Amino acid sequence: MDNDLICNYKKCRKRLTTFAWVTSCSHIFCDEDGTREFNKCYTCPACETSLSDKFDIVRIDLQPSEQYKSMVLAGQRPEVIMEICSRAMSFWTYQSHQERTYQEYMCNKAKERSVQLEKYYEQVLSTTQAELSSLKNQISANRKELESTKKRFNEVSEKLMERNRQHQKLQSMYDALRRRTITPSSFDGQLGRAPPAALRGHDSSFDMPIATGQDVLARQSSLSNVLRPAGTPPEKEFVLRPSSTPVQLNLSHQDLSSVHIVQNRFNMELGTPSKRAGGYRRGAD
Ligand SMILES: [Zn+2]
Ligand SMILES: [Zn+2]
């Protein structure tokens, strides 16, 4: 397998095992590439040498039959046989050398690329490590800050709880003091205020029984009675005299009569001090 030649067409580079095209410029191509390219023109696709002679391009079988092997060089003189063999061997050596050179070139190229990539990734690695170390430093600094903040929070919460306890104690003390101090004073205040109210209540309650039934009814029914002091004996006597209505009078009749009385009384009082009016009235009468 290592002795197999490779198609010289740049884009192909196929390992040759069955049929191949061989040129006088010592190049070899696979069956597909050779057939396609040499149908276009007789120019080597690898080195662009013009191949116009009859034996410049030959299609060969890479797996020759036993009969072909027996017959191809049969009858030739030994020096011809040896010359043909040596030329075929030199073709193979050239192809192998070409392939080795190409592989070395590719290897060097790959090495250069690998060196470049190594440098690039070393840079990337160093920058990433630097970033990582800075991030680690930041994380440790953040942790320290977090711990200090936690400590501060705990201290402040303890202080707050202490303050709350003090506040509750003070509140309870304040409540107790208020209960002790305010309760008697309010009791006194109630006592101080109570007697007048009670007295007033007594007064009002006492008013009711004292007042006569007629007075109460009159007070409830009319406003005119308010102007006049309740329970004045002369008015009561006056009420009875002018009204000739029967005894079964209802409230409205009484009210009317009382209004008449007030008017009468007013006239009389007006007439009494002024001599002229009285004189005039008397004259008119
Ligand atoms: Zn090919
Ligand atoms: Zn060539």
From TrEMBL:
Residues 125-180 form a coiled coil. GO terms for biological process: reciprocal meiotic recombination. The keyword Coiled coil applies. It comes from the Eukaryota. Keywords: Coiled coil. GO terms for molecular function: ubiquitin protein ligase activity. InterPro entries: CCNB1IP1. This is E3 ubiquitin-protein ligase CCNB1IP1-like. The gene is LOC109467234.
